[in-house]
Design brief:
This protein has 166 residues and is mostly helical. Helix content is 40%, strand content 10%. It is globular and about 60 Å long.
């Protein structure tokens, strides 16, 4: 839905996971082998991935100042099952948090959250305020006050609704 550039770093993984569901049409790419392969998921992992996706969507909505779209399991509970380790590069001494199980989606998401927290980008990952959208996007606006995934679609619809209501 969004015409925006993908989120930076590990946030691209989170953005792509949240955007596996098109709320307007009901299409869920986790239902397809191709969609699961894009996230490195087996069919047995789909229900856990959906739970994680909706918890991430609720957090993205909170980043944009909106209430959760529905009741979800808190993200911190889901990420508590995904331990991270500190990895130090011998060549330059740089350090990063890495998942103990790089194959597990929850572990990769936990590492992405940690990376984005350190980079100061976590709060810029938001969800569109349109109730029939809630698409995740990275807010690159100078003030960090973006409201819609796409100004030309969701933003235009919202402005037209306001105009017609007058």
């Amino acid at each position: 839905m969004s015409d925006r550039a993908p989120a930076p770093g590990g946030l691209a993984l989170i953005e792509s996971l949240v955007n596996t569901l098109d709320i307007e049409s009901g299409a869920d790419s986790l239902d397809t082998a191709e969609g699961r392969a894009g996230l490195g998921l087996a069919e047995a992992d789909v229900e856990a991935a959906r739970e994680l996706r909706e918890s991430l969507r609720a957090v993205c909505l909170a980043h944009a100042g909106h209430p959760p779209h529905r009741e979800v399991r808190p993200l911190d509970e889901l990420l508590a099952t995904a331990p991270l380790v500190v990895a130090v590069t011998a060549a330059d001494g740089s350090a990063s948090l890495r998942p103990t199980d790089p194959a597990a989606l929850t572990s990769r998401v936990a590492a992405a959250v940690a990376e984005s927290l350190a980079a100061g980008t976590w709060l810029r990952l938001k969800a569109c305020e349109a109730p029939d959208c809630h698409w995740a996007y990275y807010d690159r606006s100078p003030a960090g006050r973006g409201r819609w995934c796409s100004m030309s679609v969701c933003g235009a619809r919202a402005k037209m609704r306001r105009y017609r209501a007058k």
